[in-house]
Design goal:
- It comes from Arachis hypogaea (Peanut).
- One of its GO terms (molecular function) is hydrolase activity.
- Keywords: Hydrolase, Lipid degradation, Lipid metabolism.
- Belongs to the 'GDSL' lipolytic enzyme family.
- The radius of gyration is 20 Å and the shape is globular.
- It is α/β, with parallel strands linked by helices.
- The strands form two sheets. It has a five-stranded parallel sheet with strand order 2-1-3-4-5, with helices on both faces.
- 34% of the residues are buried.
- It has a single domain, classed as SGNH hydrolase (Rossmann fold).
- Strand 3, helix 4 and strand 4 form a beta-alpha-beta unit.
- The two termini are 31 Å apart.
């Protein structure tokens, strides 16, 4: 461990989470936005469904941890929503079980700390034609449809409202962009940089508007070691220095 300790934001989910540091992903963007403010911790597991998440839930989020995260962002559902395979194998989880699995995950997280915040991402849409075209010979048939994605997304949103947990409707958020099917995905399922930017925008919107104390929006959080120093770059007047602690001009997107 290194110091000083910072608020910890944990990203917990399947491949949408594991790959969030690839292709200009949303995990990468959050790490940049929250640099010197919070540590973004990745707990993403490619191909996982809510059943497997439950198997490791108490290992990833133990009740007896010395400190609990400040924020947990949870995403499971895309793999659960895949059509069932005739063999009984594969990631498919029936919708009623998915709901109960997510309930157990969220209730456990709620039990860890009164101050820990939770944010859930619902199942995003897919580009069905691209998914069919990208199917590799090493896989059996992959059944990914937007009808299934939508039903799991809506069920997740309904559950979160019941539990008073913040949730982002990714199924509809991505589709607000006219060219979403081609712009938002690398392979029809996983997020390209443009899709990740939408995810970040939605996350920041929730964090800005949430009635949480303290506020977890990046502009409201203190910057580590932000005091002025004579060792900063010298200003044009040759007499003062410029504190770069809050500079953001280098970012591709000036986030609100």
């Amino acid at each position: 461990m290194v110091g000083p300790s910072r608020p910890q934001f944990v990203l917990f989910g399947s491949s949408i989470v594991q790959l969030s540091y690839s292709h200009g992903g949303w995990g990468t963007i959050l790490s940049d936005i929250y640099s010197r403010k919070a540590d973004i911790v990745l707990r993403g597991y490619y191909g996982w469904n809510s059943r497997r998440a439950l198997q490791v839930l108490h290992k990833v989020f133990p009740k007896d941890a010395a400190a609990q995260p400040t924020l947990v962002i949870v995403y499971f559902g895309g793999n659960d929503s895949m059509g069932p395979h005739s063999s009984g194998l594969g990631p498919h989880v029936p919708l009623p079980e998915y709901i109960e699995n997510m309930r157990k995950i969220l209730v456990h997280l709620q039990s860890l700390s009164e101050t820990m915040r939770i944010l859930v991402l619902s199942c995003p849409p897919v580009n069905e034609e691209k998914v069919k075209g990208n199917t590799s010979g090493i896989f059996s048939e992959l059944v990914r449809t937007n009808e299934l994605c939508q039903s799991y997304s809506e069920a997740c949103i309904k559950l979160c409202k019941e539990l008073d947990v913040k949730v982002i409707d990714l199924f509809n958020a991505l589709q607000k962009r006219d060219d979403w099917m081609n712009a938002c995905f690398t392979d029809g399922i996983h997020l390209a940089s443009e899709g990740s930017k939408i995810v970040v925008k939605e996350i920041l919107k929730v964090l800005k508007e949430a009635d949480w104390e303290p506020c977890l929006h990046w502009k409201s959080m203190p910057t580590e070691f932000a005091e002025d120093s004579p060792y900063d770059l010298v200003a044009a007047d040759g007499k003062t220095t410029l504190n770069p602690s809050e500079w953001t001009f280098y970012r591709e997107v000036q986030w609100d």
